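pls read this protein:
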Amino acid sequence: MNHYQWYPGHMTKARRMMEENIKLIDLVIEVIDARIPFSSRNPDIDTLAKNKSRMILLNKSDLSDKDINKLWMDYYKEKGIFCIPINSRTQEGIKQINSMVVKVCSEKIERDKRKGIMNRPIRAMVVGIPNVGKSTFINSYAGKACAKTGNKPGVTKGKQWIKLRDNIELLDTPGILWPKFDNQMVGRNLAMIGSMNDEIIDKGDLAFEVLKYVKQHYPQKIAARYQIDEEKEIVEIMDDIATVRGCLKKGANTDYDKVAGIILDDFRSGRLGNITLEKPSDTMR
């Protein structure tokens, strides 16, 4: 298996910034990718957000397996964390967030009332590793393009407060990721959904891993997408996709780079179907 590694230089600075700002915060809203709810979380956030109200948003839930979304929601509910599936691009699930914020922060609101403080804004910090759609969520939630978005990891650089209606203020922070993956599966999953720079990984190997997982857990999706026999070996499946899609070099040899590109694009865009790479039971590994 590939050894996936990623160390953005601004990470330590971002972590320090979060540590400094956490005392100003009532609520931590963590945006994760619904396709990899375990791998797209930064374990540091549990430590940083200790004693704060918590909310987890399963973003890109339009691309994930709906049944497994429910398992994750139950998993976090048991841990006392509110969790809702959203799709920031289409605003699906965004309307529920305000009432959820009030519910999550009800103790803080009650405490304020007892002290005679009325309508003090709820201050929320939005966190998430690069590429989970954090900035798109903020834009969608705030209703205006107030956070820079980009599909390059680490577009958000500084900190900014964003005032919302309903007495909520958001603090946007740069996405941070741990310096090394103790678990290679985490690295593999992040690479699969495109959270790493494709130039530093072997796309052929990665597409092989995608097909291997899909064949094991969602075999019918391979047949449905490519009209081929999903019972074959992975390399043969790649050869068949090459034939169907015309990814052949001279002498009718498979162009594995091209095939890999198609497989990864189909998986990441959801054209291969709704697929989740992790269940809550995988967190025990």
Remarks:
- The CA atoms of residues 119 and 167 lie 7 Å apart.
- The chain is about 40% helix and 10% strand.
